[in-house]
């Protein structure tokens, strides 16, 4: 039975006692302390320690944390996250945190604590290259995207999978914040006063609005694979030689290029931030990281899908072109939409404005410069401010 607000009857935000009880069976000894560590937009995240070990407890709130109860949000996202972690973890072993427990009534997950890892975005902001993680993430994308698509998954299984991953409320957030609001005068948009004219220019650009609207239609209708759905550098934990994708609550059957484009867009934003602060060496490192990511995706596809398959090459070309388009909208929304990125936001005023203009120009170039034909074409447009036809 569900309450009027659509919550299972036992649901309540976890207090200290509830957190310790939930974590206890997964700790090596009696639970001792719980500390909130989350700074995300949606959920509560805690580290619970006990017996010399620790686990992470993540609980969904019945509303969007960053906005408050004015924006109610389904608790079903905890189920989606748990099930997507299981599916992706099965296809790409070791590339996601281990799910120890899912409590459906509390909309809570108990997860392996990767306390020795850091969020990839923080490493990129600090100018630290973490060895091997881009290649692992590219391989993760190949395994999870191909593995949940009609390329590799038997059609009946894939159709059954699609039934479990209808995720309308989280998809609506993306449809709104990524494809719609940045192109209209939406109250959710946020940007610096100094970027206001650039934001207004975007809204006046009919070609750009049309491109974003067409892309939103593709996002809504191309149920190609079980995508992560929010695969930016803040959704990846890294340590040398170990990348783990996390935060799978936006997972749904969507276009493969969305995950790939999000990774590339966020690398391009990190690159722009380093370039404007004179760190050309790390900007070049990010060029190599992006290529490593893409090459590993293509190599993964090659391993999973026999070369005798004549459709493989055009398939990869189509995914690349899609990734370029999705990278374009991601770059734009991270500058003028609701959710920004630390890479750019943490810059001092002057360089920040330059990085913002670069990101907007590159996003436009990706969206309006024709479909990307090769990785170098995509990456050049994502990173070099050049005029487009
Ligand atoms: C209000 S939610 C804003 C953003 O946070 C998530 O990580 C997604 O990127 C979403 O668009
Ligand atoms: Mg997230």
Provide a brief overview of the structure:
Helix content is 51%, strand content 14%. The protein is α+β, with helices and mostly antiparallel strands and 389 residues long. The mean pLDDT is 95.
- Could you tell me which ligands this complex binds, including any ions or cofactors? 5-S-methyl-5-thio-alpha-D-ribofuranose, magnesium ion
Strand order of the largest sheet: 1-2-3-7-6
- Outline type: globular
Could you tell me the number of beta strands?
Answer: 12
Protein structure class: alpha+beta
Strand proportion, as a percent range, falls in 5-15%
Following the backbone from N to C, one meets helices and strands in this order, namely HEEEEEHEEEHHHHHHEEEEHHHHHH
Cα gyration radius (Å): 21 Å
In oligomeric terms, what are we looking at?
single chain
Low-confidence stretches: none
Residues in helices, as a percent range: 40-55%
Largest sheet: 5 strands, antiparallel
Task: Give the end-to-end Cα distance, rounded to a whole number of Å.
Answer: 57 Å
Give descriptors for this structure:
binds 5-S-methyl-5-thio-alpha-D-ribofuranose; five-stranded antiparallel beta sheet; three-stranded antiparallel beta sheet; 389 residues; 14 helices; alpha+beta; globular
Describe this structure in words.
It is a single chain. The strands form 4 sheets. This protein has a 5-stranded antiparallel sheet with strand order 1-2-3-7-6, with helices on both faces. It is globular. The model has no long low-confidence stretch (mean pLDDT 95). With 389 residues, the chain is an alpha+beta fold. The protein has helices at 16-23, 76-91, 120-125, 133-147, 155-164, 168-180, 196-204, 206-221, 256-276, 280-304, 312-336, 342-345, 349-368, 375-383; strands at 31-36, 43-50, 53-60, 63-64, 68-72, 99-103, 108-112, 118-119, 225-227, 236-239, 242-245, 252-254. It contains 14 helices and 12 strands. It binds 5-S-methyl-5-thio-alpha-D-ribofuranose and magnesium ion. Magnesium ion (MG) is lined by residues 40, 230, 235, 247.
